[in-house]
Amino acid sequence: MPNPLQVFAEANSVTLEIARSAFEHLLMAVKAHHLPASAHAQMHDYYDRMILAERYFLHHFAPYLMELDHTFQVKKERPRLLDLGCGVGTQAYLMGLRGASVYGIDFKPSRAAAAQAMKPWYTDSGGRDVEVTVDHGDAFQILDQLEPHSHDGAYTQFALAYMTPHERMLRLIDRVVRPGGRILFREFNAGNIYNRIYSKVDWLTPQAYQQIGQSLGWQLESQQYYWLFPKPLINHSVTGKLAISAEEYLARFRMFRPFTGSVTLVFRKN
After folding, report:
1. Over the stretch 180-209, which tens digit does the pLDDT of each residue have?
2. Are 188 and 161 in contact (CB under 8 A)?
3. What pLDDT score was predicted for residue 237?
């Protein structure tokens, strides 16, 4: 019987349940210490806090896998993708199992090294080879050296906020993504009331993304808001399911956007 990563790799399209099961399989390996020795410390550093709030983690990160798969039509198109701020390489390898060729970049050498060390685990668990390369370094310098239009798409997850100046990074992304390619940003919602008052990070607002994107000839294809309710409410065994259902419904309405913690924007490059 195939394990959840093999099911994830073979599915015609990634459903929420398939994405959740793939993440649960990874988290079980982290809990059981069934990981390459050289990746062990960084994987625990990265995922231990998420294991403590597993329902909350799965509620927010499993949909992101669906967004990546559906946006880039990975199984059908087998695209060449750029993963900016790839961390320990989880999304890069999962997209690789679906058939994408992924180039991941992370600023931290320890995380990039852990991502490189995890490759055998994904190929063994997923039952197939993956075309995934991970480097560490300054994303500005690396993107500036890549061939123009060398990738079919690019994506980030809570990473672009730390790549300043933001507009220069967006222009570098535009340089390496081919015409017709897509760019997906899952980032913190700078319009969130809490973030505007307390955050010291210079996040771009969704409107700023759109303004810069329009100047580059990008077309906004979708905009989704998430993280309406706090972690304790989502992660609670009693209130969790009700809160998740309510959040999925309410986050669709514009009036609730100032209270959501994150946003996903998908652009198509003309």
Report:
1. 999 999 998 887 776 666 666 777 888 999
2. yes
3. 83
pTM for this model (two decimals): 0.93
Residues in the chain: 270
Q: Identify the segments of the chain with pLDDT beneath 50.
A: none
The position carrying tokens 């990074």 is: 169
Q: Do 269 and 216 touch, CB atoms closer than 8 A?
A: yes
Question: What is residue 203's predicted lDDT score, i.e. its pLDDT?
Answer: 78
What is the pLDDT, as a whole number, of residue 1? Answer: 86
What is the reported pLDDT for 199? 67
All domains of the chain, ordered by start, with CATH? 4-269 (3.40.50.150)
Does the bond joining 63 to the residue before it have cis omega, within 30 degrees of 0? Answer: no
What is the chain written as a DSSP string? ---HHHHHHH-SS--HHHHHHHHHHHHHHHHTT-S-GGGHHHHHHHHHHHHTTHHHHHHHHHHHHHHHHHHHTHHHH--EEEEET-TTSHHHHHHHHTT-EEEEEES-HHHHHHHHHTHHHHHHHHTS--EEEEEES-HHHHHHHSPTT-EEEEEEES-GGGSSSHHHHHHHHHHHEEEEEEEEEEEE-TT-HHHHHH--S-PPPHHHHHHHHHHTTEEEEEEEEE--S-HHHHH-TTTHHHHHHHHHHHTTSGGGGGG-SEEEEEEEE-
CB 201 within 8 A of CB 26: no
Block residue for tokens 């798409």: 153
